[in-house]
Write a structure and sequence with these properties.
The chain is α+β, with helices and mostly antiparallel strands. The strands form 4 sheets. A 5-stranded mixed beta sheet has the order 8-10-9-11-12. A 3-stranded antiparallel beta sheet has the order 3-4-5, covered by helices on one side. Helix 7 runs antiparallel to helix 8 and helix 7 packs across helix 9.
């Protein structure tokens, strides 16, 4: 079971009609000093904005980015007392950049690149590769089956497709066993196609193949995968749900440029 979502937990806290005094937590008296000049003349994406109020808070640097194993990210002071949940943005000369999302994308790519051989089913690009995608998939998922019907369009367009096993019903489900059979087959690509067409597989899954399915399921949970297919583009951007091959090829071209 996935760990409780941090945003959900914080939301429950915020909705509870309990005063700070009732909880026994002291409310810090932070002096409202003169705001920095940069905030008084604030511009976002190069456009000036009108602020209603600016008040100093208790959060003091250095500030740390904290990532939980369930995929949640928040920012905290060194004592872990004052925390901010949400995305961090860099309001620089090139416009507003979501730093949290950039870190998320690179983290995804690093972890996907670390998957050992035999943990994915790969369909190599035909001809020059323009990019590769990673798809968290389930052989019993109708939209995964629909995407797989277009695998030739993707590979002929120069896209390598890597399937990571993600049995939606969990690592002890019939789909998990079938995915382990696929990984243990003499030709995993042929076996994956047979499985998508609901054809029986003869291979017996070994413990290593079952472990690879467990690892894929855990990694998907860590990435926040809720449904399949979930597709990670070459730049680390991730989206959920079926995308027609033509649109996917266009998105891959943009993300690879």
């Amino acid at each position: 079971m996935k760990a409780p979502n941090l945003l959900y937990a914080v939301g429950l806290t915020l909705m509870m009609p309990v005063s700070a005094q009732a909880t026994g937590i002291p409310v810090p008296d932070v002096p409202n000093t003169t705001p920095p000049a940069a905030l008084q003349d604030l511009a976002i994406n190069g456009q000036p904005v009108t602020t209603d109020s600016i008040r100093r808070v208790e959060l003091e640097g250095p500030i740390y980015e904290v990532r939980l194993r369930n995929g949640d990210t928040f920012y905290s002071d060194a004592q872990g007392r004052h925390m901010v949940v949400g995305s961090l943005y860099d309001n620089g000369p090139d416009g507003l950049i979501n730093v949290t999302e950039q870190h998320d994308r690179q983290e995804r790519l690093d972890q996907l690149n670390a998957i050992p051989e035999g943990g994915t089913v790969d369909y190599p690009a035909k001809g020059e590769e323009i990019g590769r995608i990673t798809v968290f998939t389930d052989t019993t998922c109708p939209y995964c089956q629909k995407l797989h019907q277009e695998i030739d369009q993707l590979t002929q367009a120069g896209i390598t497709v890597r399937y990571v096993p993600f049995p939606r019903a969990g690592s002890h489900s019939p789909a998990a066993n079938q995915l382990a059979q696929v990984l243990c087959s003499e030709s995993p690509t042929d076996a994956m196609t047979r499985a998508f067409h609901d054809k029986a597989l003869a291979s017996r899954p070994s413990k290593s193949c079952q472990s690879a399915v467990d690892d894929g399921f855990s990694l998907g949970q860590q990435f926040g995968v809720q449904g399949t297919p979930s597709i990670v583009l070459p730049n680390g951007e991730m989206g959920e749900g079926y995308v027609p091959a033509r649109q996917l090829i266009q998105a891959i071209g943009r993300s690879s440029s």
